[in-house]
Amino acid sequence: MKSFRSLTVGESFFVVSEDEAxxxxxxxxxxxxxxxxxxxEEAESTRTEMDELKKVLYANFGTSINLEDR
Length: 70
Description:
alpha+beta
């Protein structure tokens, strides 16, 4: 006997089989993980760029500026 689940998309509810619900959930999870990986890479790239810019600014201005995080 198949079991059925309620799948919510926006404000709509759909009755689907458990297999279909799990497939939908896995696809949504994969898409979210891809976005997260993209944002993590972007953050690391930005952090590297900021570190390089800090080096240049400290080389030009020495300790007369403070660029450290609080």
